[in-house]
Amino acid sequence: MNREVRLFAGCVWLLALTCGQLLAQQTAPKECLFRRDNLVAWCIVPFDDRPRSPSDRAEMLNRLGFQKFAYDYRAEHIVQFDAEMDALKGHHIELVGWWFPTTLNNEARTILDVLERHKIQTQLWVTGAGEEISSPEEQRTRVIAEATRIGEIAQAAAAINCRVGLYNHGGWFGEPETQIEIIQELKMPNVGIVYNLHHGHEHLERFAELMSKMRPHLLALNLNGMITGGDTTDKKIVPIGQGDRDLELLRIIRDSDYRGPIGILNHTQLDAEVRLRENLAGLDRLVGQLEEGEH
Fold first, then answer.
1. Cα–Cα distance list, 108 to 46, 105, 114, 152, 191 (Å)
2. pLDDT tens column, 2-18
């Protein structure tokens, strides 16, 4: 099958998949959102004080009850890519996302090759940067440039039935309105948004508004303990349940019609298993408070 035919078939498949998943999310009960089988372990591989092998990591995820995983890596992990995929399959863990290079370079093509060989369909999480813009003209120029960059990745992803998630990591690119403009410019059914609360401290006061705007494009949402001004007071990453905004944010998320994957992150150089347990325990407490508030 030549590249053009594969790309067309991939786009058709992804359009059908996206429509089906949006319908499933909109009709799924809100009680499903924070269940263990919908939680994704994130920021684990390079953020762990234990030198775990792919098999060790998958066993840890099984112990904690995770059925979903998003993969981030560093250069030293590239040689483990195949072993990581085999370990996830062997432990029945779904690969929901993969931290992806910002351009379609050799490393990116290696990842695509691994996914194709292992017949894994997932989200490629792609970030960007940029300082504040100074005019509408500059905004438009940047949006077109970013759509070109992301479009090349999205085409390659579509060819193997994968999607691209625009990942907020601060800066101009990390603004939800910017990402929505890029998506609208692209008009590709396999591009959406991955929203990370730990990179969204400046969005706290308008999170409900942003959640409403992002919702049609939202592929995944990663939680964090959120403290007002935490990104400026060395409290950017804290366990869920230890933030002063956590219950409020979880209520907004629950009351939206978003029913996609929910990420639980480590993102420290501590024992990943211990930190994940802390986050799960905190989430359970908050969900209990949400349920109590309904009676």
1. 18, 5, 10, 11, 17
2. 555 555 555 555 555 55
| 129, pLDDT greater than 80 | yes
Q: d(Cα 40, Cα 220) in Å, to the nearest integer? A: 9
Q: Determine the Cα–Cα distance for residues 109 and 122; give it in Å rounded to an integer.
A: 15
Strand partners, 163: 123
Q: In this structure, what token pair is assigned to residue 265?
A: 């992150």
HSE-CB at 167 with a 13 A cutoff on CA atoms is 21
CB pairs under 8 A, 24+ apart, for 210-214? 210/176, 211/252, 211/253, 211/256, 211/258, 212/256, 213/176, 213/177, 213/180, 214/176, 214/179, 214/180
Phi, psi dihedrals of residue 118, rounded to the nearest 5°: -90, 0
Q: How confident is the model at residue 292 (pLDDT cuts 50, 70, 90)?
A: confident
- What is the Cα 237 distance to its own chain's centre? 16
Tell me how many degrees the CA angle 258-129-77 measures, rounded to the nearest 5: 80
Instruction: Work out the burial of residue 168: count CB atoms within 10 Å of its CB; fewer than 13 is exposed, 13-18 middle, 19 or more buried.
Output: buried
Q: CA angle, corner 186, sides to 185 and 187, nearest 5?
A: 100
pLDDT band at 32 (very low <50, low <70, confident <90, very high): confident
CA 197 from centre of chain: 11
